[in-house]
Amino acid sequence: MASLREATLRKLRKFSELRGKPVAAGEFWDVVAITAADEKQELAYKQQLSEKLKKRELPLGVQYHVFPDPAGTKIGNGGSTLCSLEYLESLCGDKWNSMKVLLIHSGGYSQRLPNASALGKIFTALPLGEPIYQMLELKLAMYVDFPSNMRPGVLVTCADDIELYSVGDCEYIAFDQPGFTALAHPSSLAVGTTHGVFVLHSDSSLQHGDLEYRQCYRFLHKPTIENMHRFNAVHRQRSFGQQDLSGGDTDCLPLHTEYVYTDSLFYMDHKSAKKLLDFYKSEGPLNCEIDAYGDFLQALGPGATAEYTRNTSHVTKEESQLLDMRQKIFHLLKGTPLNVVVLNNSRFYHIGTLQEYLLHFTSDSALKSELGLQSIAFSVSPSVPECSSGTACVIHSIVDSGCCVAPGSVVEYSRLGPEVSIGENCIISSSVIAKTVVPAYSFLCSLSVKINGHLKYSTMVFGMQDNLKNSVKTLEDIKALQFFGVCFLSCLDIWNLKATEKLFSGNKMNLSLWTARIFPVCSSLSESATASLGMLSAVRNHSPFNLSDFNLLSIQEMLVYKDVQDMLAYREHIFLEISSNKNQSDLEKS
């Protein structure tokens, strides 16, 4: 899709011009707000935003805020939206009536993408730009045209997805209608089952093109294919030429196939945001999880019914308050219009799991060409090998010329010495590795931790197929857990550890690889990686490796003890070394 690639590159160039410069009134967002799971994550986000502003990596003259969820019950991204509106009003007073706000949901500890756990999904590095773009910069770049065509209100998006789109030369996306406005992307019916799907008013007079403004009759949240047909959400592909009408996470849709329009981000005008805020103030603290998509958007449009308020099939935990809260939100928002901006030349990508991360960064994916992702991005590294299934990807790292990184693997924020061999489909993050072989399908991520005032290091390691969220309730059941495909009980024997309650941190009714105290604490990054690779090697070779001599942490505890400042300082050291190396190379060339 050449037009998509050109449109994306234009937005990247436009954003690049704004980085480190004060923005003109109306040219950019008044407020960029990021949600955090708790106060600890809030602090980590604020530290990173402060560093970015100091290094002039973001547009200036914008209010950047981090809004943490309140302690206690998980409240979902809908609850976070309500809390954020209250923060906005308390910070800005009446001024927020006239503000254009970008709200990015980034709370949570990324158990499905653990290299984002310590510093946050919105700060995930991308193989793009110098200095490296993180998801935050990419979001700001892809939405760079929005603020100048938007009335005051709030645009709501998530930290781990990417929307790419192209419209005609004289066209632009406007967020200027009352109520809610959502973007819609053509997708296969299979993709529709995991997204929101729009049932659009039919409009025979419509001129079809890359951009269409439509009214939504009803919004379906993760519907079955049967319900997509039942509620008339399914379209037959029109002749758009040879462009691919799929969402980015799907295969190409052949001509004359069936498709639906799925959701991504949405906007609410100030009046709708104020209505939600007043509701939240009258309700008091939340005691249940609210979904900004499932619970807000399903209440909108003339065809909305209260039927969904009783459907809890997509709810992680059914609290007693949930049904009552859904009913109240439905009656609050019923009758509010849902405008839809149909983007027929667009793609939606999700990068929230290890598999998605590797797919988009290393394989010959559409995202790679559309965004111009690089195999070696802002790094000192020998060229990386390619094969038919893809290539390796090296981001903000220093890789010795004697090191080999196999295709399908990603290395970020790391130093790899000579005689290091990284197998295929690995993720190596923030690690210092010397003279070793890392087996294929390994995940390795090192963290700086502060324990009793002392700076230490710990490295989480596991297999790419391991499920960190999989939990059991009793010690007898931990044999159901697997580490690198091996029964966890067998691993404990190899490591000379006993299966007792002390082996797990946190809730003793929720025993998992996430809460298992199995990762050694060491006094340097390289020792830490060596020790954790030693425990992995022992499991693969069924040879003893005594972990009982180490102070051990769980991943959960690493995140509690993490030292963000030291982790950022380590990245800065690598940054300076790469910059110095590049300057030296430029001098030699000239």
Question: What value does the average pLDDT take?
Answer: 93
Classify the secondary structure makeup into a structural class: alpha/beta
Largest sheet: 10 strands, mixed
How many helices? The count is 15
What's the total count of β strands?
32
What share of residues are in beta strands?
Answer: 15-25%
Low-confidence stretches: 240-247
Helix content: 25-40%
Shape: globular
Specify Rg, calculated over alpha carbons.
Answer: 24 Å
Report how far the terminal alpha carbons are from each other.
37 Å
Structure description:
The longest helix has 26 residues, at 564-589. Strands 1, 2, 3, 4, 6, 7, 8, 9, 10 and 11 form a ten-stranded mixed sheet that branches. Strands 13-16-19-22-25-26-31-32 form an eight-stranded mixed sheet. A three-stranded parallel sheet has the order 17-20-23. By secondary structure, the chain is of the alpha/beta class. Residues 93-523 form the GDP-fucose pyrophosphorylase domain. It comes from Mus spicilegus.
